[in-house]
């Protein structure tokens, strides 16, 4: 099965600090593999090994809703499509999490935040005269915004992987264990970059 995976982006801090680019990569990768996992698995089933039987259309045949897929085809799909996509997304999220915890000397809003904080320190707060005068909502540094985005996307990733693995487990049969163990075993066996 020749499946074209979405290529991993060049990992730079600028990529991480561009929320649209990060989200687009994750969305495209998820839609190419996880959102269409049923179609990928259906493509592995060979419905008519002996050829097409024209009489099969003259009467209804009850078939199971999900065909069991042979183990070799399932393993090929997992090793060649599923796990590489998951690994690529994990690498991007790990890199961006690292960027979010690193110092950010190039933050374009650092001076603006400092000016806002200075004005807040000079502000007179009298909540009797103005009950809203005590409110101050400082801008978050972009590293904190990135950390929040990465945490949210990692949660989404865990949900997506759990649902995908549930479908793969049902269709491929057998005891496949958890997706975490399966991915760890694949990484150990393949030593991806």
TrEMBL record:
GO terms for cellular component: mitochondrial intermembrane space. It holds the Pfam family MIX23. InterPro entries: MIX23, MIX23_fungal. Belongs to the MIX23 family. This is Caffeine-induced death protein 2.
């Amino acid at each position: 099965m020749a499946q074209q995976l979405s290529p991993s982006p060049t990992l730079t801090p600028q990529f991480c600090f561009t929320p649209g680019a990060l989200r687009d990569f994750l969305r495209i990768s998820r839609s190419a593999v996880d959102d269409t996992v049923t179609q990928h698995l259906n493509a592995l089933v060979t419905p008519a090994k002996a050829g097409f039987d024209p009489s099969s259309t003259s009467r209804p045949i009850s078939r199971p809703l999900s065909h069991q897929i042979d183990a070799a085809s399932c393993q090929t799909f997992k090793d060649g499509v599923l796990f590489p996509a998951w690994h690529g997304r994990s690498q991007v999220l790990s890199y961006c999490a690292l960027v979010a915890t690193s110092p950010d000397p190039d933050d374009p809003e650092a001076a603006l935040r400092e000016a806002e904080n200075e004005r807040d320190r000079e502000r007179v707060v009298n909540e009797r005269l103005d009950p809203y005068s005590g409110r101050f909502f400082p801008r978050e540094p972009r590293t904190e915004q990135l950390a929040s985005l990465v945490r949210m996307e990692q949660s989404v990733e865990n949900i997506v992987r759990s649902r995908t693995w549930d479908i793969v487990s049902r269709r491929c049969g057998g005891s496949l264990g958890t997706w975490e163990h399966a991915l760890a075993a694949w990484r150990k066996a393949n030593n991806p970059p």
